[in-house]
Design brief:
alpha+beta; 2 domains; 8-stranded antiparallel sheet; 3-stranded antiparallel sheet; 13 strands
């Protein structure tokens, strides 16, 4: 078992492997990642997901299934294939590892249930299954709870994690206005220096300005002030 799956179950199959939480996933198999599997009762996620995310359910509870897809110019070359550099570096195993680390430390992130990859020559495809957080709105919709949002981002940074795409849709607010962070694809674990912290905050600023204009910018300014107070 490698670092990507430490403390998790591991199941190898002919073209790849999957890691899983043995306490939540009692019947690990490739069918967990097939939205066409009727047992999953898959329904497409309406917002985001690049048409590759589904709400699903099973004996693991309510979850979100996401197939990794490229965006931007890279998608013109390949929508879902990535260069193989080892199992622990696959998008699914890496995100599973980050989520497990943050969840174990008590941060509000969706618990990782399972991640898988399928290798073909020098490339691979990947998918991940994560816990669904009930009763949430995106920060883009709510524009509320700047203190809670700042605390969530600060706690993530203090845990040594840098988010690769901290935007207004990757921060959720639950019914108690507690902030949750999602989508840790390409996140990095290691020292999070001042420049890395600022890059996350500025990425969030661009997103909030784009989706909500001056109201979004005003909310971001409150988040930034609260974050600075936490850092003092």
């Amino acid at each position: 078992m490698n670092a990507a799956t430490s403390g998790a179950g591991l199941l190898a199959f002919e073209s790849g492997a999957l890691c899983f939480d043995p306490a939540r996933v009692l019947h690990p198999s490739q069918s967990l990642f097939d939205p066409g599997n009727p047992a999953l009762k898959a329904a497409p996620v309406a917002v985001g997901g690049r048409q590759s995310a589904w709400f699903v359910s099973g004996d693991f509870g309510s979850a979100v299934l996401r197939h990794y897809r490229r965006g931007g110019l890279a998608a013109r070359v390949s929508r879902d294939r990535y260069l193989w550099t080892g199992a622990s570096s696959t998008r699914s195993f890496a995100e599973f590892r980050i989520l497990r680390l943050l969840d174990d430390r008590g941060l509000r992130v969706p618990a990782p249930l399972a991640g898988a990859y399928w290798k073909s020559g020098p490339f691979y495809r990947a998918a991940i299954l994560i816990e669904r957080i009930p009763g949430v709105r995106t920060l883009a919709e709510a524009l509320e709870a700047p203190q809670a949002v700042a605390e969530a981002i600060f706690a993530m940074h203090e845990a040594g994690v840098w988010h690769a795409d901290l935007n207004a849709y990757n921060i959720l607010l639950d019914e108690s206005n507690r902030a949750w962070l999602i989508d840790f694809d390409r996140a990095r674990h290691g020292p999070v220096r001042a420049g890395h912290r600022q890059s996350n905050l500025l990425r969030l600023r661009r997103s909030m300005l784009k989706v909500a204009g001056e109201r979004g910018l005003g909310c971001w300014e409150q988040i930034q002030r609260a974050y600075r107070q936490l850092s003092a």
